[in-house]
Design brief:
The complex is a heterodimer of chains A (162) and B (438). Chain A has helices at residues 16-26, 59-63, 89-93, 119-123, 141-161; strands at residues 2-6, 37-41, 46-50, 69-71, 77-79, 100-102, 107-109, 129-133. Chain A has 162 residues and is α+β, with helices and mostly antiparallel strands. Chain A has five helices and eight strands. Chain B has helices spanning 12-25, 45-49, 63-68, 129-138, 152-156, 158-163, 184-196, 292-306, 375-390, 397-403, 408-414, 417-421; strands at 4-8, 30-35, 71-75, 79-83, 88-91, 96-98, 101-104, 108-110, 123-125, 144-148, 167-171, 200-202, 207-213, 216-221, 227-229, 231-234, 238-240, 256-257, 269-271, 276-279, 286-288, 319-324, 327-333, 341-347, 352-359, 362-371. Chain B has a five-stranded parallel sheet with strand order 3-2-1-7-19. A five-stranded parallel sheet of chain B has the order 9-16-10-11-12. The longest helix of chain B is centred in the C-terminal third of the chain and has 16 residues, at 375-390. Chain B starts with a strand and ends in a 17-residue tail after the last helix. The relative contact order of chain B is 0.13. Classes of the chains: A alpha+beta (162), B alpha/beta (438). The interface between A and B is large, with 54 and 68 residues.
């Protein structure tokens, strides 16, 4: 199936993906409601977007006690808003931390691949996010591991200074 | 002749076993469900109580769906006796069912603390749909509701009671709220939060009696003032429904002992959910996890094995999450293991708390508190669960997290947790959406 392939080395941290995602998902430009999240690495010298991999198990879907999470025609695990009761079981079941909860509607929400035209990929100016035929993979692990010693050292030094 | 599966219990475990059998055999086998109640989702009951959903929303296996799934049913009947040598199940109306294999999924029942007066009208339990209906009918705006017990089940309905504009007092015999879910420090934060949101809390309170008092209830305690309530809810624990298995030859400890196929000591008898004592993901030891996710996973694995798949279960992970007045409270795994290397940190200004428990450089358990509108909290809840679940080594990240237990995401991403998690599925294949029928 087509999914979001992330190439973190290309990400410039412009946050356009978060803006586009929230606009398509909620009708407003509010990165706080984006289901793709850009994280800084190495003291904000590099960045990488992170979102649901549409994993094979679908931990959110199988955990849902009211069958409110299903698979859409494009293969995304999606929350059926009318069916969701807001129990949050999916947020604890998803081991990737890619479930979200809207405290105003009391419903869970997540990446639904925008129904097959993901706004994040369309908005990304550097093709760090592409919507292509691919297998789900750990796009960020190596990138983050290479950049982690400095993050750990910096935090240790900060702790020392305190 | 078609294989005859008997499913005893129509809760989450039984439901998932049925759906999984049908995913595999598309209707070839005979399935008979024995369920004391019309099958519904217990997790949905608090939302029915709070009137954010209609009663019809709670049902799972409706008659129409059972027909589509080709499931014969004995609804309103209980299993009375199991003869494993003959392969025969006897129901409480005397009917007998012959099976080729059987799933024990009879769940648990609420237990009221043994106090005089707990059986008076107006003293409720909250476990079944029938009991939920009773509470819905009795709680009115301005009612004073006294919740006896401050465990997970009690906490799942605090929001609903407050949504009905009732006044709420929570009393707990232990010195803290949620004694089987979070530690004392976390409990203090939650108690302060609830007090701020108008909930009265009395911990260390031993209830002595409940008496009638002019149509209301008077609760007396070993120490402290009496409480007068319009509605009393007893949320003082649950016990597993095992009595009917006496003399069956099925080996039991706290629950029915099962192996990694969810198979009991009798080869064609499986058990799943609250009644099953199966492998714990963290310790590998038998454990009883009376929680929704375990019932779901047990049911799916048992169903697959009953459908002649050979699926090994890695074990269940203890996890609970509850939101009260927009504060998330979650714990998982060995959250209270006294032998673990543990560290914790609080950010009181954000009502946030983290406790991480380790064996070597593996995370084996965690507790997390944070505001429900805090995306950071919601995402970290999942990632901490993922770190426990994938059993990866965190190396230098452990010391990093000791310094700052709030900086979970870099540790999750850089430790390769995603790569470890992606290939893992419960049934050794991609999951399908809940099977709707033929």
């Amino acid at each position: 199936m087509k999914l979001l392939r992330i190439t973190p080395e290309r990400c410039t941290g412009c946050m356009r993906c978060e803006l586009a995602c929230s606009y398509v998902q909620t009708g407003m430009f509010q990165p706080a409601r984006s289901v793709i999240r850009v994280s800084p690495f190495e003291g904000h010298t590099s960045y990488a977007p992170y979102t649901c991999a549409q994993c094979a198990e679908g931990w959110c879907m199988t955990a849902c006690p009211v069958e409110a999470i299903t698979i859409s025609p494009v293969g995304a695990k999606v929350v059926v808003q009318d069916q969701c009761v807001g129990c949050k079981l999916c947020t604890i079941a998803c081991p990737y931390g890619t479930m979200f909860y809207n405290p105003e509607t009391h419903k869970a929400f997540k990446c639904d691949l925008c129904g097959g035209a993901p706004a994040c990929a369309a908005a990304c100016p550097t093709a760090a996010i592409e919507y292509v035929e691919a297998e789900a993979a750990d796009w960020l692990g190596r990138f983050a591991a290479e950049r982690s010693p400095r993050h750990i050292e910096r935090q240790a030094a900060l702790a020392e200074a305190r | 002749m078609a294989r005859r599966h008997a499913i005893v219990g129509g809760g989450t475990a039984g439901l998932n076993a049925i759906l999984t059998i049908r995913e595999h055999d598309r209707g070839e086998s005979e399935i008979t469900l024995v369920s004391a109640e019309r099958p519904y989702s217990r997790m949905a009951l608090p939302y029915y109580l709070g009137r954010s959903i209609a009663e019809s929303h709670v049902f799972t296996l409706t008659p129409a769906r059972m027909a589509q799934l080709k499931v014969h049913t004995h609804i309103g009947r209980r299993a009375a006796r199991l003869d494993t040598a003959a392969g025969r199940l006897t129901l409480d109306d005397g009917a007998a069912l012959d099976y080729d294999d059987l799933l024990i999924a009879t769940g648990s029942s609420p237990v009221k603390a043994p106090v005089p007066g707990v059986d008076l009208p107006g003293v409720h339990s909250f476990w079944t749909l029938e009991q939920a209906r009773g509470l819905v009918a009795h709680i009115r705006e301005g009612s004073h509701v006294v919740m006896v017990g401050a465990g997970f089940i009690a906490f799942t309905i605090l929001n609903a009671i407050l949504a009905l504009k009732a006044r709420l007092t929570v009393v707990e015999i232990a010195p803290q709220i949620l004694p089987r879910m979070i530690d004392r420090n976390a409990a203090e934060i939650v108690e302060r939060w609830l007090t701020r949101h108008g909930v009265a809390i009395r911990t260390g309170a031993t209830l002595l009696t409940i008496d009638e008092a002019n149509g209301r209830k008077r609760l007396r305690f070993r120490e402290g003032e009496d409480l007068v309530a319009d509605v009393v809810v007893m949320a003082t624990g649950i016990r597993t429904n095992l009595e009917w298995l006496k003399g069956s030859g099925v080996r039991m400890n706290h629950g029915v002992l099962v192996d990694d196929r969810l198979r009991s000591s009798v080869a064609n008898v499986f058990a799943a959910g609250d009644v099953a004592e199966g492998p714990d993901l963290v310790t590998g030891q038998p454990a009883l996890h009376a929680i929704e996710p375990t019932a779901m996973e047990h049911g799916r694995v048992a169903g697959a094995n009953m459908a002649a798949q050979d699926i090994a279960y890695r074990g269940s992970l203890l996890m609970n999450i509850v939101e009260v007045c927009h504060l998330d409270i979650a714990s998982f795994g060995a959250w209270d293991d006294p032998a673990a290397d543990a560290f914790a940190a609080a950010r009181p200004e954000r009502w946030a708390y983290r406790k991480l428990l380790w064996r070597g450089d593996r995370l084996i358990g965690a507790t997390i508190l944070g505001r429900a509108d805090d995306i950071w909290t919601t995402n970290d809840v999942g990632m901490l669960k993922g770190l426990v679940q994938c059993r990866g080594c965190l190396g230098a990240w452990k010391e990093h997290l000791r310094r700052n237990p709030f900086d979970v995401k870099p540790a999750f991403v850089a430790s390769g947790a995603t790569a470890r998690l992606l290939p893992a599925t419960i049934l050794g294949r991609p999951s399908s959406p809940a099977y709707q029928g033929l």
